[in-house]
């Protein structure tokens, strides 16, 4: 190995219009370039407290335990599931895309007895079905993704929250793809736990998972509390009852680290915390509702432009997330070839999907820093050109005109 | 909450001379401010391959599976333990500080049958003892910390590696605190798995854990291979045998993501990867041996200066890590008061320790970006002043003179 062949990072300037990660807001990257401070520095613990407050507002909750997990989105999911599920617990999972399968899989690894309501990809789950299943199964937890990027669907949660409350079922959702770009009401929807990620509508880099926990689920988690033997003192109770399978994801220990006890667990990822704080600060200073409207506006403009190319939209459009669009790849077209030309000749990235949808749909995102008019127009323009180049004919100018028309009508949205 | 009271990150300029995190190399922070690219962008997968190559050189190994875990140091530990240990497996853990206890705890959570060799804090474990224990217990794995910051001790591993090979025991070490600042020879010492962290001698921020796996341990891990149902296709084998307790830390899935298959798992934390690549690149361009010598030189200069204040060193000095020093707090002195004045009046952070050593010793680091003469001199100067201010008398000028003398003698080290 010739080490001098390894140069500085020199990543190409991409426009990331796929399902995420998308381009990070440059203000977030600048915040992350800040020099480190110690993990118990009063400035650091103040920043941790500020992060808790900021994310309470993003999650629309009063939950005290609103904290960061040091890992990607699925680290947040796993921390909640492994800390809450006892082996043998019944959980009911709504599956309407890849990430519903992920919830099942993680729950199974926690040794839950997993029940599912599965609907075809492109649809959402009807709340009535959920009540029937809850009555029959009597689960301890109900797990669902909020917005599943694999299918672009956004599952309505309010009625399900009411049902969960009525039957005393703990209610969890994975809001990685939806938070910041779609309405999410943790307290109003009676959610007991929500986890998220940075790399979608929040405009940051992957690597941190904000979570929030209700006091009800906190009590369930605290029953398995345990202080590490290396830092345990006389004041702490001996040993550990029903120890959970993970140390890294043991939320009672992570709460003791974020809470007033400040009991050492991991070494908080300071740089990631700086970035997460800046993501939330930018959105909240702009206004959360305004941020959601921005996602809706640019998502709809993209939709109008895509439809004007004569392309078919995947899934039930009434339940589409604001920030992502599934586009059925025309039979005459090689989807990967389009993505390759978009990337190589225009430096624009769009996505495909997973499993059965791999190569069948493109996924085009308009989220976070890239929920902007210029990003929408550039993407439509390039895609229209590439399709025509490959022999798929569109009406000249129609796609961009549809977007312009949409913007003109919704100038004040 | 008044969101406009939340200002830009404006962390104070600290000199972090504790046990880590320490100040990140500014070149690393700049690399991390690079804009994102997609996770399957050819530039991204090239960077992932480069990271594998760079960390092979840092770990001194030819192991193909040399990759990053997206989480702090203990995420790397847990990924290896949870992917390797079957419930009921016997593991032998060497415990000579807090982080040995952590290994026991994580192993117990993996449902291992845990055996320990415990020595008093400040000592290391004699290899003869290890052979006796292995003969008696016949463990599947031997786990040990390499350098334990809680006590500053560096456990010699070469002879233990020979013993492990002889008795066919898998050999793991946590090199978080030692890597880059002390000799670590993965292949020569016959280590099957090593995990590390960024925030000590590598000069980066916490949040990423580089790991390396021998082909022998890979085989053990692969037996529990499993492809997520959401992305499983006809080509993959059905279902999962002996599924491990974690999805996030399932190394067979993480290998499939880093390997030529590029099977989606988490969304790689791009910013953290940029930083980890830059840490390794800087050290290797400078020369790994030179980097270790630098840690030795400045660590010894700090030691000379501290001893010249008449302070007692904690632990067996023959086995001290290059990058960290335990200093017994004089009985007449309140250790936390000293740390507070150091931080508030000089903006210099030094550490205390954990458990029984909390408030009994200070821990002073000279590592990563802060293994520098100016950092040593500033820290000695400030500590000497604070001690005298609080009534602990030193010989005027003796501490700094001792450091100067050391540097003069070892100018060319």
Structural features, described:
Chains A, B: Belongs to the class-V pyridoxal-phosphate-dependent aminotransferase family. Chains A, B: This is Aminotransferase. Two copies of one chain form a homodimer. With 413 residues, chain A is of the alpha/beta class. Chain A folds into two domains: 258 residues, 3-Layer(aba) Sandwich (Aspartate Aminotransferase, domain 2), CATH 3.40.640; 122 residues, Aspartate Aminotransferase, domain 1 (Alpha-Beta Complex), CATH 3.90.1150.10. The first copy, chain A, contains 13 helices and 13 strands. In chain A, the strands form four sheets. The first copy, chain A, has a seven-stranded mixed beta sheet with strand order 2-10-9-8-5-3-4, sandwiched between helices. A two-stranded parallel sheet of chain A has the order 1-12. In chain A, strand 6 and strand 7 form a beta hairpin. In chain A, helix 10 runs antiparallel to helix 13 and helix 11 packs across helix 12. The longest helix of chain A is centred in the last third of the chain and has 20 residues. Chain A is globular. In chain A, 60% of the residues are buried. At the A-B interface, helix 1, helix 2, helix 3, helix 4 and helix 9 of A face helix 1, helix 2, helix 3, helix 4 and helix 9 of B.
């Amino acid at each position: 190995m010739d080490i001098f062949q390894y140069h500085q990072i020199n990543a190409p300037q991409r426009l990331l219009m796929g399902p995420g990660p998308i381009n990070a807001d440059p203000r977030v990257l600048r915040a992350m370039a800040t020099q480190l401070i110690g993990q118990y520095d009063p400035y650091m613990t103040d920043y941790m407290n500020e992060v808790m407050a900021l994310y309470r507002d993003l999650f629309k909750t009063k939950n005290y335990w609103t904290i960061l997990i040091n890992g990607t989105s699925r680290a947040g999911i796993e921390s909640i599931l492994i800390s809450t599920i006892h082996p043998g617990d019944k959980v009911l999972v709504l599956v309407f895309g890849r990430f519903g399968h992920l919830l099942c899989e993680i729950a199974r690894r926690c040794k839950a007895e997993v029940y599912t309501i599965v609907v075809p990809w492109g649809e959402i789950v009807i709340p009535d079905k959920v009540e029937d299943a809850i009555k029959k199964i009597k689960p301890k937890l109900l797990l669902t993704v909020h917005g599943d990027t694999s299918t672009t669907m956004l599952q309505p949660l309010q009625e399900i929250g009411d049902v969960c409350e009525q039957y005393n079922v703990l209610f969890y959702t994975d809001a990685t793809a939806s938070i910041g770009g779609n309405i999410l009401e943790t307290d109003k929807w009676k959610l007991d736990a929500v986890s998220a990620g940075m790399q979608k509508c929040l405009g940051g880099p992957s690597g941190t998972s904000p979570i929030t926990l209700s006091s009800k689920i906190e009590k369930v988690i605290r029953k398995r509390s345990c202080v590490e033997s290396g830092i345990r003192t006389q004041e702490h109770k001996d040993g550990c009852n029903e120890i959970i399978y993970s140390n890294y994801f043991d939320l009672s220990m992570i709460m003791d680290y974020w809470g007033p006890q400040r009991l050492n667990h991991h070494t908080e990822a300071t740089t990631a915390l700086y970035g997460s704080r800046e993501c939330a600060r930018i959105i909240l200073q702009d206004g959360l509702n305004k941020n959601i409207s921005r996602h809706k506006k640019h998502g709809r403009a993209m939709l109008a432009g895509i439809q004007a190319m004569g392309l078919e939209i995947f899934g039930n459009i009434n339940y589409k997330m604001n920030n992502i669009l599934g586009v059925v790849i025309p039979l005459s077209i090689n989807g990967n070839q389009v993505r390759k030309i978009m990337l190589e000749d225009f430096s624009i990235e769009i996505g495909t999907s997973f499993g059965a949808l791999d190569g069948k749909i493109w996924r085009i995102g308009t989220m976070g820093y890239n929920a902007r008019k210029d990003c929408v127009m550039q993407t439509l323009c390039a895609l229209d050109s590439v399709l025509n180049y490959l022999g798929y004919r569109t009406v000249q100018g129609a796609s961009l005109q549809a977007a312009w028309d949409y913007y003109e009508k919704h100038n004040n949205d």
